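Sample 1 of the test manifest.
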Amino acid sequence: MNGKIVKPSILPGFMELTPSDQILFNKMMDTIRKNYEKFGFLPIDTPLIEKSEVLLAKGGGETEKQIYKVVKGDTDMCLRFDLTVPLARYVAQHYSDLSFPYKRYHIGKVYRGERNQKGRFREFYQADIDIIGNGSLDVINDAEIPSVIYSTFKDLGFDSFTIKINNRKILSGFFNNLGINDSTFVLRTVDKLEKIGIDNVKNELKEIEISQTSIEKIIEFISINGTNDEIISKLKDLNIDNGLFVEGLNELSKTVEYIRLFGVPEENFAVDLTIARGLDYYTGTVYETFLNEYPEIGSVCSGGRYDDLATYYTKQKLPGVGISIGLTRLFYQLTEGEIIKSTDNSLTQVLVIPMDGYMDYAIKGSSILRESGIYTQVYFEEGKMGKKFNYADRLNIPYVIIVGKEESENNKYSFKNMKTGEQKIISMDEILECFK
Amino acid sequence: MNGKIVKPSILPGFMELTPSDQILFNKMMDTIRKNYEKFGFLPIDTPLIEKSEVLLAKGGGETEKQIYKVVKGDTDMCLRFDLTVPLARYVAQHYSDLSFPYKRYHIGKVYRGERNQKGRFREFYQADIDIIGNGSLDVINDAEIPSVIYSTFKDLGFDSFTIKINNRKILSGFFNNLGINDSTFVLRTVDKLEKIGIDNVKNELKEIEISQTSIEKIIEFISINGTNDEIISKLKDLNIDNGLFVEGLNELSKTVEYIRLFGVPEENFAVDLTIARGLDYYTGTVYETFLNEYPEIGSVCSGGRYDDLATYYTKQKLPGVGISIGLTRLFYQLTEGEIIKSTDNSLTQVLVIPMDGYMDYAIKGSSILRESGIYTQVYFEEGKMGKKFNYADRLNIPYVIIVGKEESENNKYSFKNMKTGEQKIISMDEILECFK
């Protein structure tokens, strides 16, 4: 102990919560987990560090620049930047141990060395589900994913949210039909519509030498709106003679039909032809989810269908569909915007406060409470009663039990409701009754 | 997609589980969490990466050699190697937001570049609890910790385990009384008794020039045994006139007395004078926990009392007591030794299998089941019935519901118990009744 003090701090871009926020965060995480499990998704937990050759097998792109390298010995290692690449590696590696369709959920931290700015995190939780087929995977799965999201966000306490749905085949097919064969750039431009506005989309398309006529047609196309059925009907009426387009439209129709069957109300999902998703591995259905009252937050849950999960690790064809909740960012936005607020400073339901000399009786009582499933804490430290009550107040523990001579002699407990201030001397049975 | 396949594999020393083992692991983790919360411990979740100057503020020692460095930009960062240093930093940093005694639990991964050998992990879960006082912390807390451990291991399904307890002040006081003032090395040597045997302990002590008489006295001392009360009584009878010794003995007596009050049965805890703990920051009570039927596993849960948690980050005096379960290693040992075995390949309780054309009816049924809290999955893929039943078998899903023409027309379901083979056509209400 040389007396030198290092300032206690964490790295920028890392989230660390106070106990009350942590309790709220854990509740959200538990709710998500429970919903994922209810639909048959299996848990997975992969190492945070992986071999670079595995994690970066795909190579290139923005991702590689954001990688955290890990150094110890000679092995080339890095921290995972999403949960999809580890899933691909896992499924390829444990292929013969898995039953397909393989449904898995994964809630875990990922790392991206993003530019430091408010609301962007370098360490953040993702909460993912994916359904992986062996060779093929029915399009009904594309409809189940939104139903899981619906159930999850409802349980998280939201009512007004919209799961926006599109199908990339429709977009690509439409572009192909206009003579645009490499539709990737057009897709990405369309995907930025919300962010950059219609004029900038037009300009960007002009720059890659899309003809004025085509640009007009593209704009007209992505402006198609109406109810889900109206949009699908308008798309059919276009009578576009392109295999990909027709395939995508059939998939979208079926997806919409089944989303309804899964019980998702019409107001909670919407076909939206402007949803394209920037990532290049999506090949069919794509999703983005918005909280209607807080559009500024952006998409809180996105994903889609991909043709082949694990091309870099296996020759098995593994199509899948999945979605990811960016939990850390969502939590940050919700608390920052005071959309949700932590209410519990503790999980403790009862604080037992013994008067001098009655610790034994207090401890015995606390054991009975805990055995009945009641989260109970005893205040062990010496001090004035005010300090002890103040502790219960600060942790906003709802009930306090005080024990002393009178209580001990009569085999009773002073039971105080901290909210109402009501206090009565009652038996343990009566206390337990209050918690039923 | 260049067709080049990277072999899917993970780094040596990292644990990754199959779905059924993961389910079992998560159950253990949930049980531990629930017990920690029941006693009033608050959750915490700190970044896995910290500034090196913070994490390595103490410096030196074995730990530093095992550090995983993290590289991205210029900041000197590394991965945490335990949950205690982050706790110290957290408490110093958020001091004014915390209510003391601050009870926190933390279940998370830590990283140590240990030599690669069976049963040793480089990434592993620790499940820690600590109670931190502001300035002081009553010794009753030293007795509560074993009661949490008792409750946790009982809930994990163990009956025959022993929480061994000692107090470092007793050892140091005894050594001081023999004229050995720097007792650290002697403590460490005594701590290795189980591993290296009595003769090697004697030799090591001889090497650091402890006199033959003192060595004999040390051996005689650590050989003191009997019931908890007998050992304490024998220690008292030694009449050692050393302040530290007397203080330690008082603490130990009080700890034993209160462990009983907390309801820990006599057979589940034992004063053991050979328990010293290698780590240098313990200053009072120390714990190690052994599964009596599997002594070869070694200690499954260890910890102790320390005078000051966060000397490197704050001038506040923060005494504490805590314990850690090395969850990954424990799980490995328990499954390797077939002491525990995974039984569930899935969390799904019901698999709904629709006959051709009855998907709608199947999906509606599954929604009702899920709304009633029953974990339900629908088999969406086309294929033969055998394949679908095989899926239920492989995931050992306990119940299967088959729906087709007959079921749909009569608003009923064929409900099959996969264990007994019993199958009956019943209503949804009757099915729900079965799960009550």
